[in-house]
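Whiteboard transcription, Tuesday session. T.W. wrote the structure tokens on the left side:
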């Protein structure tokens, strides 16, 4: 699985009774990349919706035969939209809605995530 650099914003979310959980989100405008994560271990993935093998396919379908590089779980069973669902520091799942007002560019950072890709999709 490749790593992929993604420009995103950082936020600190409250979730599952814990505070200051660091989460990342992407501006909805521009390039159509989404983030998803493994709800077992919190590993974050970049999903390129402009990849024709992915398109509008459901996350579970895209990850059907992919093992999480973080914990080995088959992602079909653990993948979820991120940071709408994220793994909080206490191991429970929290929910975070990214703000609709996107911060200025200088507050963004380039992060590297696993690229969720369909390499041997038939
Ligand atoms: Zn995992």
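and on the right, the sequence the group agreed on:
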């Amino acid at each position: 699985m490749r790593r992929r650099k993604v420009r995103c914003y950082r936020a600190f979310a409250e979730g599952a009774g814990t505070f200051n959980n660091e989460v990342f989100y992407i501006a909805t405008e521009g390039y159509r990349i989404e983030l998803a994560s493994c709800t077992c271990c919190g590993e974050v993935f970049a999903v390129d919706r402009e990849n024709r093998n992915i398109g509008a396919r459901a996350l579970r379908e895209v990850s059907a035969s992919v093992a999480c590089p973080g914990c080995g779980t088959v992602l079909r069973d653990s993948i979820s939209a991120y940071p709408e669902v994220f793994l909080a520091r206490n191991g429970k799942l929290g929910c975070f809605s990214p703000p609709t007002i996107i911060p200025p560019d200088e507050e963004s950072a380039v992060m590297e995530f696993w690229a969720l890709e369909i390499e041997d999709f038939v």
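Someone added at the bottom: Residues 82 and 116 are 13 Å apart (CA to CA).
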